[in-house]
Structure formats: structure tokens, C-alpha cells
Amino acid sequence: MGAPRHDGVERSPRDRGAPRDESGPAGTGEFRTAAVRRSPALRGRGDAWSLDGRLALVTGAGRGLGRGAALALAAAGAEVVCVARSGAELAAVAERIRADGGVAHVHAADVTDEAQVLGMVGRAEALGDLRVAVTAAGTNRPGPARDYSLADWDALFDVNVRATFLTCRAVGDALLRRGAAGSIVTLSSQMGSVGYPGRVAYCATKHAVEGLTKALAVEWARDGVRVNAVAPTFVETPLTRTFLDDPAFRAEVLDRRLPSGRLATVDEVAHAIRYLACDAAASTTGHVLKVDGGWTAW
User: Is-catalytic flag, 202?
Assistant: First the structure.
């Protein structure tokens, strides 16, 4: 039997004793920010899972895992700056957060551009107490190594590695200048630990992200800046849908590769990001948290 809960959450008599669930339908990433409310006396104090009073910056927030991360951090109490290139997608995410009682800002930027990244972080600092960043911008262009174009190789390194570094560097500098503790969560993949046919560039970029994450973690640990990665297996998002729509590829993944026999959900990845962002993970840095259904345990 688990220990009793003492999380300062006000529940109706009907809800007391029931498991706490802040998410919507499984896999949708539809976190309900207003599902629970913390008592004023405890808000922002004594709850290791809360992000009340903190501002979180999420890149790639317009869709997929970035969108799920933005909703999850808002549900945890953070004020969220949602960043992507598509203003329409950002507006929809921010509208969802606000409808659930959260606070959201939108900032359109190309995170492969150094000047735009510095502007993005500068705006986040001006808006509130920047303490959390999630680098969820990413892309993939599969293809056999012998025929793989340098243009595609460069495009993947620009988005998956360069943009991750630029955001981490700018946010880390902002935290270090202020002497503020914080958490940066990068997005890797199960492919950051293994190889896979037709994924030479993607695997290389995700191995690079994990190396970057660990190097920054040890460099900034004494200053209270934690840097971790989340490494999911395949999740149905706009990025992966074209691959997973292929029945042969889907069967290969589900029947032969994944011990769990199912894809991960946006919610499951977002929960992992929320954990690493909050004080419950205060002694966790330089870690790659795998949400991969056992893929890398073979």
C-alpha cells in the first residue's frame, strides 16, 4: 500500500482518495491546468512537484511533444512561453492553456538563429522568473547512408543539435548571470542510444544531444542548473505520422522492436519532462530518462 498523500491539493469529497489525474484522454497531451488547485498557503511552497511562480520556456511548442510539454508545465503551475515558427499553432496552444486557467505567451522564432534565440530568452526573462527550459524543436529526414544528402544531414544538425545548443547556452547564461537555480530538459530519443537502419543522421544528432546534455550538466551542476534529457520511443505526432502510417514499418516497431508492444503517448513523455523540470528531480542531472517501452533494454 502506498504512503498517504500530503500534497496540499484541495479535492472535493467525491475526489478524495482517488488518484490524481491532470491529463485528458490518454495520449492526447490535453492536460487540464484547472483540474486541481493548490491551497494558497501551500502554493509554491513545500510541493516538490509544483512549478508555481516559475516561468518555463518551451521550443517546438506548436505541435507534438513540445505542445504536450507546454501543457504539462502549465498544469504544474508554470507560466509558459511557447516558441515555434508557426504563429497559428502557437496561438492554439496558448489558447488551450489560458482556457484551463494557466498563463501563456507566444513567441515566434527560428531557434537555429542565434540572434532570435537570444531575443527569445531575453523576452522570457522580461516576462517572469525564468527557471525552466525544454528544447523540443526537432526534425527527421530518414534515408540510407550511401545516398544521404549533405543538405539533409546539415538540416538535421541545425535543428536537432545547433538549436538545442543555442537554447541551452542562452538559458544557462541567463540563469548563471542571476545566480538562479533552474532546469533544462532536452529532447533526445531511443535513437540516442542505439542505431537503426535508415536513420544515420537522426541517430547521430540524438547521440550528440545526449553528449551535450551530459557535458552541460557537469559544467553547471555546482551553480544549481540541472540539465537532463528525455528519450522517448516512437510517439504518434506530426513528425512520426508519415513513418507510422506505413503498415510494414508500424509492424516492425510494434511486433519486433518494442517489448511493450505499444507506442508511447504524448502524455507519458510530457510527464517525464515535468518530473525533470520540478524540484522532485533536484538531485537528477546529466541523466537521460528513457520513455521507450523497453526498446533500449534488449
Answer: yes
